[in-house]
Specification:
TIM Barrel; 12% strand; globular; 14 helices; alpha/beta; 338 residues
């Protein structure tokens, strides 16, 4: 077990706890080589060390108790706001609703220009053009769910057409869902090929790969899905669609953060992480930031490498920010509802 180390960050001085586990003796050649065969991919994924479930749960619980000073809390709130993917994914979405969401993402608190913009607005592919037009010049990205969100059950041709259409309309990020049925049946090569094909269809757009961890059932499966997606070319790995319970949890995110950390150690390529669903309060958001800092390290404390799929948390972040700045707590009606 590695020795403990002390790290200094904007959240204060913490003692990093021992790792729950890593990828063992995986060679760089294995991770960056040619397309694997089904047998090679299965051997690799099932050769990963098993996750210590009790250890992961306990470590996540310990990190969730960490407190930070008031000055660091102000920094953490602004950081969390800048990491939010503000999302609307309902059948009743309209261009007007998307424009209103874009306005909020670009200026979360119109009365305070010091509030950072969010990372991205996430919409269905047919509304990407509306978001692109509304966000022009703001620096806010446009993400789009594709590949038959949220089920992932559609012919591959339809998934790729969906992806290409979103990119052509101006999406800078694509959030795809894996075929959980194929993954759970052990057909890892199909999942790998679908991710690789979607990555190719993205062009310059970044690809976030959604696992729907609530359906994967075990931490070992979460670790396998993480390494599978990264080997296939994912730029981000994401916990959930937000449509299935349980969605994001601290232990699951811990397992994914360990995977991206170990993957970079072995390949030099950094991959982002996005927990999504169930993150509703400022306290929740800060717990995730502490988890990132203590597991993957401060290199991931940036919207380029960590996102929060948590639209409902934004108003609470804004209320807590206002309270720190003025000493007065603003009610939820002070801010627009998404």
């Amino acid at each position: 077990m590695p020795n403990q180390v002390v790290t200094q960050t904007g959240f204060g001085c913490f003692v990093s706890e021992p790792r729950v586990g890593d990828a063992g003796g995986v060679s760089t050649e294995t991770l960056t080589g040619a397309r694997p065969s089904g047998a090679e991919l299965r051997a690799f994924l099932h050769g990963l060390p098993g996750v210590d479930q009790v250890g992961a749960d306990e470590r996540a619980a310990r990190l969730a108790t960490r407190s930070i000073k008031t000055s660091a809390k102000a920094q953490a709130i602004d950081m969390a706001i800048s990491m939010v993917d503000l999302t609307t994914l309902e059948g009743a979405d309209t261009p007007g609703k998307v424009r209103a969401l874009c306005a909020k993402g670009a200026r979360p608190d119109p009365s305070d220009p010091g509030v950072p913009r969010v990372a991205a607005i996430c919409v269905y592919p047919d509304l990407v053009g509306v978001a692109v037009e509304a966000l022009q010049g703001t620096g806010v990205g446009v993400a789009s769910v594709a590949t038959a969100f949220p089920s992932g059950r559609a012919p591959m041709e339809a998934k790729l057409a969906d992806t290409r259409a979103a990119v052509e309309a101006g999406a800078t990020e694509i959030d795809m869902v894996i075929d959980r049925g194929a993954f759970l049946a052990g057909d890892y090569l199909t999942v790998y090929e679908q991710i690789a094909a979607t990555k190719a269809a993205c062009g310059a757009a970044h690809l976030k790969v959604i696992f729907e961890t609530g359906e994967l059932a075990t931490y070992d499966n979460v670790r396998r899905a993480s390494w599978l997606a990264m080997r296939a070319g994912a730029d981000f790995i994401k916990t959930s669609t937000g449509k299935i319970s349980p969605a994001a949890t601290l232990p699951v995110t811990l397992v994914m953060l360990e995977a991206v950390r170990d993957f970079r150690d072995r390949t030099g390529r950094q991959v982002g992480v996005k927990p999504a669903g169930g993150i509703r309060t400022t306290k929740d958001a800060i717990k995730y930031l502490v988890l990132v800092n203590e597991t993957a390290g401060p290199d991931w404390l940036s919207p380029a490498w960590f996102r929060l799929g948590a639209s409902s948390v934004l108003n609470d972040l804004l209320m807590q920010r206002r309270k720190l700045a003025t000493g007065v707590y603003s009610g939820p009606d002070h801010f627009t509802k998404d």
